[in-house]
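Would you be willing to look carefully at the protein I have copied below?

:::
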Amino acid sequence: MNREELRDQLLAPVLQWTRLGRQTSRLMTASTAVISYRSRRLLRAGALTRRADWAEAAQMAREKVEVPLESATAMAAAMLPVMQQFWTHAGQSMLACTSDSLSLACSRNSEQFRERQAELGTTLINVTVGWFRLLGSVADVASQGVAPVLRQVQANAARLEKR
């Protein structure tokens, strides 16, 4: 693996977390608009007297249950392959590091020691890159959970903006 490939593999999780940050920022912006609109409506109306106000309150209550369930389901579904990757990577990493360490310890001469030391170094780099990839996968799982909430909040903001 050359430096550019290593850089790209180490940068990928950073980009995944950056995408999650942008998604969260859009969620906060849209949420602010929805909260502002709904609060102004309630303050102006005092009590819920119109059918539209009751319909909005009912929709709000329904969304408070439906959207978090959808979010949790999406995260659970996205988490299964990540957990499988985690355990596979953990097992393979332990085996590779143990094998290369024992091989290094059993070196017969300095040339063999240097070669096996380089192999252990390569293994450690590959293990580290694998852990970085898994960290990026966590951001993808979180992104799957935020997506339904973001979709609903943006839909509410667009709908309420038209009123």
User: Anything to note?
Assistant: The mean pLDDT is 89. The first helix runs from residue 3 to 45. The helical segments are 3-45, 51-105, 110-161.
